[in-house]
Write the C-alpha coordinates for this entry.
Amino acid sequence: MLREPDTLIGLGVGTTKIAVIVAERDPRSRETVQIIGIGSTPSLGIRKGLIVNLEQAVRSVRNAVKDAENMVGFKLNQAMVSFNAVDVNSVMSKGMVSLGLRARPVEVGDVERVIEAAQTELSIPANKVALHTIPVRYSIDGNFGIDDPLGMTGMRLEMELQTITVPMPYVHNVVNCVEASGMEVEGLVIKPITSALGALTDEEMRIGAISLCIGGGTTGLTFYRDGRPVKVGIVPIGGDHITNDLASVLRLPLNKAEELKKRLFVAQNDDPIKLESKGQQQRTIDPNTALEIIGCRLEELFTEHVVPLIPEHDPKLFPGGFILSGGVAKTPGIEDLLSDIFKMPVRVADPRDSYHQMPPGRDDTSYINATGTIRYMLNKERNPYRFIDPPVSLWRGRRGVRGGHSNGPREYPEPQRNGQGVKNILERIKESLRELF
Protein backbone atom coordinates (compact mmCIF):
# COMPACT_ATOMS: atom_id res chain seq x y z
CA MET A 1 0.00 0.00 0.00
CA LEU A 2 1.47 3.37 -1.02
CA ARG A 3 1.78 6.48 1.10
CA GLU A 4 -1.47 8.33 1.66
CA PRO A 5 -1.60 11.69 -0.14
CA ASP A 6 -2.33 13.77 2.96
CA THR A 7 0.59 12.70 5.10
CA LEU A 8 3.78 14.46 6.13
CA ILE A 9 6.92 12.36 6.68
CA GLY A 10 10.09 13.40 8.46
CA LEU A 11 13.30 11.41 8.70
CA GLY A 12 15.95 12.36 11.25
CA VAL A 13 19.51 11.13 10.71
CA GLY A 14 21.17 11.24 14.12
CA THR A 15 24.26 9.91 15.85
CA THR A 16 22.30 7.83 18.37
CA LYS A 17 19.19 6.89 16.42
CA ILE A 18 17.38 7.20 13.12
CA ALA A 19 13.79 8.38 13.60
CA VAL A 20 10.94 8.46 11.08
CA ILE A 21 7.78 10.37 11.95
CA VAL A 22 4.50 10.21 10.03
CA ALA A 23 1.71 12.77 10.47
CA GLU A 24 -1.73 12.77 8.87
CA ARG A 25 -3.65 15.89 7.96
CA ASP A 26 -7.05 16.58 9.45
CA PRO A 27 -9.52 16.38 6.53
CA ARG A 28 -11.27 19.48 7.90
CA SER A 29 -8.08 21.60 7.96
CA ARG A 30 -4.81 21.06 6.10
CA GLU A 31 -2.98 23.02 8.81
CA THR A 32 -3.96 20.54 11.53
CA VAL A 33 -2.13 17.22 11.69
CA GLN A 34 -2.03 14.19 13.94
CA ILE A 35 1.03 11.99 14.55
CA ILE A 36 0.06 8.47 13.44
CA GLY A 37 3.39 6.71 13.70
CA ILE A 38 7.05 6.91 14.65
CA GLY A 39 9.70 4.40 13.70
CA SER A 40 13.21 4.35 15.14
CA THR A 41 16.33 2.26 15.23
CA PRO A 42 19.83 2.73 16.70
CA SER A 43 22.24 4.52 14.37
CA LEU A 44 25.15 2.60 12.94
CA GLY A 45 27.85 4.11 10.77
CA ILE A 46 27.30 7.66 12.07
CA ARG A 47 29.65 9.52 14.40
CA LYS A 48 29.21 13.12 15.61
CA GLY A 49 26.52 13.59 13.01
CA LEU A 50 28.87 12.49 10.22
CA ILE A 51 28.30 9.36 8.13
CA VAL A 52 31.45 7.26 8.49
CA ASN A 53 30.13 3.95 7.14
CA LEU A 54 27.58 4.35 4.35
CA GLU A 55 26.49 0.70 4.25
CA GLN A 56 25.72 0.59 7.98
CA ALA A 57 23.94 3.97 7.87
CA VAL A 58 21.78 2.84 4.93
CA ARG A 59 20.78 -0.27 6.85
CA SER A 60 19.81 1.82 9.87
CA VAL A 61 17.65 4.17 7.79
CA ARG A 62 15.97 1.23 6.08
CA ASN A 63 15.17 -0.39 9.44
CA ALA A 64 13.70 2.84 10.85
CA VAL A 65 11.51 3.29 7.76
CA LYS A 66 10.30 -0.30 8.03
CA ASP A 67 9.48 0.25 11.70
CA ALA A 68 7.36 3.29 10.82
CA GLU A 69 5.66 1.45 7.93
CA ASN A 70 4.66 -1.38 10.26
CA MET A 71 3.01 1.15 12.55
CA VAL A 72 1.09 3.15 9.91
CA GLY A 73 0.26 0.27 7.56
CA PHE A 74 1.40 1.76 4.24
CA LYS A 75 4.63 2.25 2.33
CA LEU A 76 6.67 5.41 2.79
CA ASN A 77 8.47 6.67 -0.29
CA GLN A 78 9.75 10.19 0.46
CA ALA A 79 10.56 12.37 3.46
CA MET A 80 11.86 15.69 4.70
CA VAL A 81 15.32 14.80 6.03
CA SER A 82 16.93 16.48 9.05
CA PHE A 83 20.61 16.02 9.77
CA ASN A 84 23.60 17.50 11.59
CA ALA A 85 26.79 18.92 10.15
CA VAL A 86 29.61 19.94 12.47
CA ASP A 87 31.11 22.66 10.26
CA VAL A 88 28.04 24.92 10.12
CA ASN A 89 28.18 28.68 9.68
CA SER A 90 25.33 31.06 10.44
CA VAL A 91 25.87 34.54 8.94
CA MET A 92 23.68 37.65 9.05
CA SER A 93 23.60 40.19 6.20
CA LYS A 94 21.45 43.16 5.16
CA GLY A 95 19.94 44.28 1.88
CA MET A 96 17.92 47.24 0.61
CA VAL A 97 16.19 47.99 -2.72
CA SER A 98 14.10 50.88 -3.98
CA LEU A 99 10.54 50.30 -5.10
CA GLY A 100 10.46 53.53 -7.09
CA LEU A 101 9.74 57.21 -6.65
CA ARG A 102 6.11 56.44 -5.92
CA ALA A 103 4.78 53.95 -3.42
CA ARG A 104 3.67 50.65 -4.96
CA PRO A 105 2.94 47.06 -3.82
CA VAL A 106 5.88 44.69 -3.25
CA GLU A 107 6.18 41.95 -5.88
CA VAL A 108 8.06 38.62 -6.00
CA GLY A 109 10.79 40.24 -8.10
CA ASP A 110 11.37 42.83 -5.38
CA VAL A 111 11.90 40.10 -2.78
CA GLU A 112 14.36 38.40 -5.12
CA ARG A 113 16.26 41.67 -5.52
CA VAL A 114 16.48 42.40 -1.79
CA ILE A 115 17.66 38.85 -1.08
CA GLU A 116 20.28 39.26 -3.78
CA ALA A 117 21.35 42.58 -2.25
CA ALA A 118 21.78 40.90 1.15
CA GLN A 119 23.60 37.89 -0.32
CA THR A 120 26.15 39.97 -2.19
CA GLU A 121 27.67 40.88 1.20
CA LEU A 122 28.59 37.24 1.72
CA SER A 123 31.55 35.16 0.63
CA ILE A 124 30.57 31.50 0.43
CA PRO A 125 33.50 29.03 0.47
CA ALA A 126 33.78 26.82 -2.58
CA ASN A 127 33.11 23.60 -0.68
CA LYS A 128 29.95 24.85 1.08
CA VAL A 129 26.34 25.36 0.14
CA ALA A 130 23.70 27.72 1.53
CA LEU A 131 21.25 25.15 2.86
CA HIS A 132 18.91 27.71 4.45
CA THR A 133 18.29 31.33 3.57
CA ILE A 134 16.12 32.77 6.35
CA PRO A 135 14.63 36.28 6.22
CA VAL A 136 14.91 37.48 9.81
CA ARG A 137 13.32 40.93 9.45
CA TYR A 138 11.59 42.80 6.64
CA SER A 139 11.14 46.54 6.62
CA ILE A 140 9.09 48.76 4.33
CA ASP A 141 9.98 52.46 4.50
CA GLY A 142 11.74 51.85 7.82
CA ASN A 143 8.84 50.02 9.46
CA PHE A 144 10.02 46.62 10.78
CA GLY A 145 8.01 43.66 12.06
CA ILE A 146 6.68 42.58 8.66
CA ASP A 147 6.28 38.81 8.18
CA ASP A 148 5.36 38.74 4.51
CA PRO A 149 6.03 41.86 2.41
CA LEU A 150 4.20 40.68 -0.72
CA GLY A 151 1.38 43.05 -1.65
CA MET A 152 2.32 45.66 0.95
CA THR A 153 2.84 49.20 -0.34
CA GLY A 154 5.93 51.35 0.07
CA MET A 155 8.93 52.97 -1.60
CA ARG A 156 11.84 51.09 0.03
CA LEU A 157 12.20 47.42 0.96
CA GLU A 158 14.88 46.29 3.43
CA MET A 159 15.68 42.97 5.05
CA GLU A 160 18.03 41.18 7.43
CA LEU A 161 18.96 37.75 6.14
CA GLN A 162 20.45 34.74 7.89
CA THR A 163 22.33 32.30 5.66
CA ILE A 164 23.22 28.86 7.02
CA THR A 165 25.99 27.10 5.12
CA VAL A 166 27.10 23.48 5.44
CA PRO A 167 29.81 21.50 3.64
CA MET A 168 28.55 20.11 0.35
CA PRO A 169 30.00 16.61 1.05
CA TYR A 170 27.73 16.37 4.13
CA VAL A 171 24.71 17.04 1.92
CA HIS A 172 25.78 14.48 -0.68
CA ASN A 173 26.47 11.79 1.90
CA VAL A 174 23.12 12.23 3.65
CA VAL A 175 21.23 12.19 0.34
CA ASN A 176 23.16 9.13 -0.88
CA CYS A 177 22.37 7.33 2.39
CA VAL A 178 18.64 8.08 2.37
CA GLU A 179 18.14 7.33 -1.32
CA ALA A 180 20.14 4.09 -1.11
CA SER A 181 17.62 2.99 1.54
CA GLY A 182 14.81 3.37 -1.02
CA MET A 183 13.47 6.74 0.16
CA GLU A 184 13.32 9.94 -1.87
CA VAL A 185 14.61 13.16 -0.31
CA GLU A 186 11.78 15.69 -0.36
CA GLY A 187 13.86 18.37 1.33
CA LEU A 188 16.76 18.93 3.73
CA VAL A 189 16.83 20.80 7.02
CA ILE A 190 19.56 21.25 9.62
CA LYS A 191 18.64 19.65 12.95
CA PRO A 192 19.01 22.65 15.31
CA ILE A 193 16.13 24.31 13.43
CA THR A 194 13.78 21.35 13.75
CA SER A 195 14.76 20.85 17.41
CA ALA A 196 13.86 24.48 18.12
CA LEU A 197 10.53 24.16 16.32
CA GLY A 198 9.72 21.05 18.35
CA ALA A 199 10.79 22.55 21.69
CA LEU A 200 9.81 26.24 21.69
CA THR A 201 6.33 27.63 22.03
CA ASP A 202 5.11 30.44 19.77
CA GLU A 203 5.36 32.86 22.70
CA GLU A 204 8.98 31.85 23.44
CA MET A 205 9.89 32.37 19.80
CA ARG A 206 8.31 35.81 19.88
CA ILE A 207 9.82 37.12 23.11
CA GLY A 208 13.22 35.50 22.54
CA ALA A 209 14.57 32.12 23.64
CA ILE A 210 17.45 29.73 22.98
CA SER A 211 16.90 26.12 21.97
CA LEU A 212 19.65 23.82 23.24
CA CYS A 213 19.43 20.24 21.97
CA ILE A 214 22.03 17.81 23.36
CA GLY A 215 22.01 14.71 21.19
CA GLY A 216 24.24 11.69 21.00
CA GLY A 217 27.14 13.19 19.07
CA THR A 218 26.41 16.91 18.79
CA THR A 219 24.77 19.83 20.59
CA GLY A 220 22.65 22.17 18.50
CA LEU A 221 21.71 25.76 19.37
CA THR A 222 19.12 27.99 17.76
CA PHE A 223 18.57 31.58 18.93
CA TYR A 224 14.99 32.79 18.36
CA ARG A 225 13.89 36.42 18.54
CA ASP A 226 10.76 38.15 17.24
CA GLY A 227 9.50 34.83 15.95
CA ARG A 228 12.54 34.15 13.74
CA PRO A 229 15.79 32.18 14.17
CA VAL A 230 18.66 34.71 14.25
CA LYS A 231 21.58 32.31 14.74
CA VAL A 232 22.28 28.58 14.50
CA GLY A 233 25.29 26.67 15.81
CA ILE A 234 26.41 23.07 16.28
CA VAL A 235 29.01 21.86 18.81
CA PRO A 236 30.59 18.39 18.23
CA ILE A 237 29.93 17.26 21.81
CA GLY A 238 27.01 15.13 22.98
CA GLY A 239 25.85 12.16 24.99
CA ASP A 240 28.49 9.82 23.54
CA HIS A 241 31.16 11.94 25.24
CA ILE A 242 29.38 11.43 28.57
CA THR A 243 29.35 7.69 27.98
CA ASN A 244 33.08 7.74 27.24
CA ASP A 245 33.75 9.75 30.42
CA LEU A 246 31.81 7.27 32.55
CA ALA A 247 33.62 4.36 30.95
CA SER A 248 37.03 5.96 31.45
CA VAL A 249 36.66 7.23 35.02
CA LEU A 250 34.68 4.27 36.39
CA ARG A 251 36.53 1.72 34.25
CA LEU A 252 33.42 0.29 32.66
CA PRO A 253 32.87 -1.29 29.25
CA LEU A 254 31.20 1.20 26.88
CA ASN A 255 27.95 -0.75 26.79
CA LYS A 256 27.75 -0.72 30.60
CA ALA A 257 28.61 2.97 30.72
CA GLU A 258 25.75 3.63 28.29
CA GLU A 259 23.42 1.51 30.42
CA LEU A 260 24.49 3.45 33.53
CA LYS A 261 23.85 6.77 31.82
CA LYS A 262 20.34 5.78 30.76
CA ARG A 263 19.49 4.45 34.21
CA LEU A 264 20.65 7.70 35.78
CA PHE A 265 18.30 9.60 33.47
CA VAL A 266 15.27 7.75 34.87
CA ALA A 267 16.45 7.14 38.45
CA GLN A 268 13.92 8.19 41.08
CA ASN A 269 16.26 8.02 44.10
CA ASP A 270 19.92 7.89 45.20
CA ASP A 271 20.06 4.13 45.61
CA PRO A 272 23.28 2.49 44.34
CA ILE A 273 23.05 1.18 40.77
CA LYS A 274 24.08 -2.43 40.20
CA LEU A 275 25.53 -3.39 36.82
CA GLU A 276 25.66 -7.03 35.75
CA SER A 277 28.39 -8.14 33.33
CA LYS A 278 28.59 -11.62 31.89
CA GLY A 279 31.67 -13.38 33.19
CA GLN A 280 32.59 -10.44 35.44
CA GLN A 281 31.93 -9.48 39.03
CA GLN A 282 28.88 -7.32 39.66
CA ARG A 283 29.66 -3.59 39.95
CA THR A 284 27.83 -1.23 42.28
CA ILE A 285 27.97 2.42 41.27
CA ASP A 286 27.20 5.42 43.49
CA PRO A 287 24.80 7.54 41.37
CA ASN A 288 26.11 10.77 42.89
CA THR A 289 29.64 9.94 41.72
CA ALA A 290 28.37 9.19 38.23
CA LEU A 291 26.33 12.40 38.14
CA GLU A 292 29.39 14.36 39.20
CA ILE A 293 31.27 12.95 36.20
CA ILE A 294 28.40 13.90 33.91
CA GLY A 295 28.22 17.35 35.49
CA CYS A 296 31.89 18.02 34.72
CA ARG A 297 31.36 17.23 31.04
CA LEU A 298 28.20 19.35 30.86
CA GLU A 299 29.91 22.27 32.61
CA GLU A 300 32.71 22.11 30.04
CA LEU A 301 30.16 22.02 27.21
CA PHE A 302 28.28 25.05 28.54
CA THR A 303 31.22 27.22 29.62
CA GLU A 304 33.71 26.49 26.85
CA HIS A 305 31.44 25.95 23.84
CA VAL A 306 28.01 27.51 24.45
CA VAL A 307 29.16 30.69 26.24
CA PRO A 308 31.28 31.88 23.26
CA LEU A 309 28.19 31.78 21.06
CA ILE A 310 26.27 34.17 23.32
CA PRO A 311 28.29 37.47 23.32
CA GLU A 312 27.13 38.73 19.93
CA HIS A 313 23.57 38.30 21.19
CA ASP A 314 22.85 40.01 24.51
CA PRO A 315 21.26 37.44 26.88
CA LYS A 316 18.70 40.11 27.76
CA LEU A 317 17.30 39.65 24.25
CA PHE A 318 16.20 36.13 25.24
CA PRO A 319 13.95 36.48 28.30
CA GLY A 320 12.47 33.06 27.52
CA GLY A 321 15.81 31.56 28.54
CA PHE A 322 17.03 28.12 27.51
CA ILE A 323 14.74 25.31 26.37
CA LEU A 324 16.50 21.94 26.60
CA SER A 325 15.84 18.90 24.42
CA GLY A 326 17.64 15.76 23.29
CA GLY A 327 18.32 12.64 25.33
CA VAL A 328 20.85 14.31 27.65
CA ALA A 329 18.20 16.84 28.71
CA LYS A 330 16.90 14.10 31.02
CA THR A 331 20.03 14.37 33.21
CA PRO A 332 19.02 15.11 36.84
CA GLY A 333 20.06 18.62 37.86
CA ILE A 334 20.87 19.84 34.34
CA GLU A 335 18.40 22.73 34.60
CA ASP A 336 20.01 24.10 37.77
CA LEU A 337 23.51 23.74 36.33
CA LEU A 338 22.64 25.65 33.15
CA SER A 339 20.71 28.32 35.07
CA ASP A 340 23.63 28.89 37.47
CA ILE A 341 26.06 29.39 34.57
CA PHE A 342 23.95 31.74 32.45
CA LYS A 343 21.69 33.30 35.10
CA MET A 344 18.75 32.69 32.80
CA PRO A 345 15.53 30.67 33.14
CA VAL A 346 15.79 27.06 31.94
CA ARG A 347 13.17 24.43 31.22
CA VAL A 348 13.18 20.98 29.63
CA ALA A 349 10.96 20.65 26.58
CA ASP A 350 8.11 18.17 26.79
CA PRO A 351 6.63 16.68 23.59
CA ARG A 352 3.35 16.27 25.47
CA ASP A 353 3.05 20.06 25.50
CA SER A 354 3.22 20.08 21.70
CA TYR A 355 0.13 20.48 19.57
CA HIS A 356 1.03 17.05 18.16
CA GLN A 357 0.23 14.06 20.36
CA MET A 358 3.10 11.59 20.39
CA PRO A 359 2.53 7.83 20.57
CA PRO A 360 3.21 6.17 23.96
CA GLY A 361 6.89 5.41 24.50
CA ARG A 362 7.96 8.11 22.05
CA ASP A 363 6.92 11.11 24.12
CA ASP A 364 10.26 12.16 25.64
CA THR A 365 12.82 14.86 24.88
CA SER A 366 14.81 12.65 22.48
CA TYR A 367 11.93 12.83 19.96
CA ILE A 368 11.59 16.62 19.98
CA ASN A 369 13.43 16.80 16.66
CA ALA A 370 10.83 14.53 15.05
CA THR A 371 7.88 16.75 15.96
CA GLY A 372 9.89 19.80 14.90
CA THR A 373 10.37 18.36 11.42
CA ILE A 374 6.61 18.19 10.94
CA ARG A 375 6.22 21.75 12.20
CA TYR A 376 8.96 22.86 9.81
CA MET A 377 7.06 21.39 6.85
CA LEU A 378 3.84 23.09 7.94
CA ASN A 379 5.59 26.45 8.42
CA LYS A 380 7.00 26.30 4.92
CA GLU A 381 3.52 25.66 3.53
CA ARG A 382 1.91 28.51 5.46
CA ASN A 383 4.60 31.09 4.77
CA PRO A 384 7.04 30.37 1.90
CA TYR A 385 9.24 33.25 3.08
CA ARG A 386 9.79 31.79 6.55
CA PHE A 387 12.50 29.43 5.27
CA ILE A 388 13.78 29.78 1.71
CA ASP A 389 15.65 26.61 0.84
CA PRO A 390 17.57 25.66 -2.29
CA PRO A 391 15.57 23.82 -4.96
CA VAL A 392 15.64 20.03 -4.99
CA SER A 393 17.86 20.11 -8.08
CA LEU A 394 20.73 20.98 -5.73
CA TRP A 395 20.95 17.40 -4.45
CA ARG A 396 19.31 15.59 -7.37
CA GLY A 397 22.07 16.85 -9.62
CA ARG A 398 21.42 16.19 -13.29
CA ARG A 399 19.74 12.81 -12.92
CA GLY A 400 16.63 14.11 -14.65
CA VAL A 401 13.55 12.14 -13.64
CA ARG A 402 12.17 12.95 -10.20
CA GLY A 403 13.05 10.19 -7.81
CA GLY A 404 14.80 8.20 -10.54
CA HIS A 405 17.85 6.16 -9.64
CA SER A 406 20.70 5.64 -12.00
CA ASN A 407 23.15 2.76 -12.04
CA GLY A 408 25.91 5.10 -13.16
CA PRO A 409 27.82 7.63 -11.07
CA ARG A 410 25.91 10.67 -9.88
CA GLU A 411 26.77 14.07 -11.19
CA TYR A 412 26.63 17.08 -8.91
CA PRO A 413 27.18 20.75 -9.69
CA GLU A 414 30.84 21.70 -9.46
CA PRO A 415 31.59 24.08 -6.57
CA GLN A 416 32.63 27.56 -7.66
CA ARG A 417 34.91 30.21 -6.23
CA ASN A 418 33.51 32.89 -3.93
CA GLY A 419 32.03 35.34 -6.42
CA GLN A 420 30.66 32.72 -8.78
CA GLY A 421 29.46 30.64 -5.84
CA VAL A 422 27.30 33.50 -4.50
CA LYS A 423 25.91 34.08 -7.98
CA ASN A 424 24.93 30.42 -8.31
CA ILE A 425 23.31 30.47 -4.87
CA LEU A 426 21.26 33.52 -5.87
CA GLU A 427 20.09 31.72 -9.00
CA ARG A 428 19.03 28.74 -6.90
CA ILE A 429 17.12 31.02 -4.52
CA LYS A 430 15.32 32.60 -7.47
CA GLU A 431 14.49 29.16 -8.83
CA SER A 432 13.15 28.19 -5.40
CA LEU A 433 10.93 31.28 -5.31
CA ARG A 434 9.61 30.52 -8.78
CA GLU A 435 8.77 27.00 -7.63
CA LEU A 436 6.86 28.43 -4.65
CA PHE A 437 4.85 30.91 -6.70
